[in-house]
Amino acid sequence: MSRCQPVSRPLIRSLQQSHTSASLPSIAIRSFSSTPARKDEPTTTTQSSGSDVSKIEEALLGARIENPFDGSLGSRRRRAALATTTNIPFEQMPYQTFQEARKILNADRQEKIAQIVKETAKIKRLEAADASTMRGGEAYKQKRLASLREYVEELKILADINDPLVKRRFEDGMGDMNKPIYRYLAENRWRGMDYKIITQRIEQFNVVPDILPKFDPTMDVQLSFRGSKAAPGTILDSRLTETPPTLRMQVFDAGERLLSVVVMDADVPDPMSDGFKRRCHFLAANIPWDPTKKTLSLHRFGATPTGAAPTPSTSEGDLAVPWLPAFAQKGSPYHRMNVFVLEQSGPLDTAKLKELYDGAGRDSFSIKSFRDKFNARPVGFNLFRSVWDEGTAGVMQRHGIPGADVEFKRQRVYSLKTPRKAKGWEAKRQKPKYKHLWKYTKRIGTMSGGT
Fold it and tell me: What CATH class has 204-398?
């Protein structure tokens, strides 16, 4: 419950009481005053319709939200202001403090714009200058240009960071992600909670250093199966993960880039080596991505449970390894299904990827080797877990995966220590003279954990 509700309830209750009192003709309600009523003063009544009360209640407490995750609703404060000032544009709301604050913000924005024009002219002059006349040569010129461009991007953010219209569009989900201010706000929102959760899962499930020696995500990656969002590290039913997921990905830097999506199981039991190995469940490369794109459905790459041939290439990327459902054999611990998003330095050869990782190459997959071999940089991450459940055998049978009848059991390890000799009271009374006390000795040994 929000804090504004208990504060506004007395006001709403008084309005409802005044509405009930006004409906009685024999009772007159006098307006608030600090002086006593005079006999010759006419009485005034306060009338309030039920629609007005409900409207004020809806403005103060907020209307019932059918979908709390809908980003188009905005904040309660802004919805309350819009409900009480109908047919008035947001930037023209009749609040003196609001309008005076907008004047100050507009003046500050004009200063930032003038500074941006000045720095942009400086960049053009530096680009036209000859690097040989500079003390540091071409390296100094490029370093200086990068510094100036970074400063201009920072000024663009500072020019709009306090604009209420910008914040309104961002809250409504209508921000243009090509502009630096909206990317900045989106990254701040992601680093507020989602980034902390995913970094905690990376440490909690030992993704570092089990899979990668060092990794820090820089983009937002969220999972959903059949329209249901999956929190990082959740144990999901094998029948739910039988179909490929949908990824919601958001990058926070400008420009288009090529991405690769890898889904791998890091906990495949290996009885021969008495350890674990890794298996690739999905691999797609050459996926064009920019800040304006948000969702990537792995269904579009053509993975089908009926055994039909998958589509090798689409306009959204190339499929190298089709989707293999997540499964865990009976008796094995939970499997960490890791979803990595890697940024490519250039287009990858899909035929070579299929040759290396499709078919028998699934069971010898290594994300570290993939990163080093193809010069890809991990930028996004998410994961879910898979265990043996009542639907795992059916999933394995439908997709032709062997091993549904195999159950892993822990082998009992016997102690290599020699039996310990009796000491103390027990050793002293092992002679036949104390035979009548042996029953007590056996009882003491049983109670202490002996045999």
Answer: alpha beta
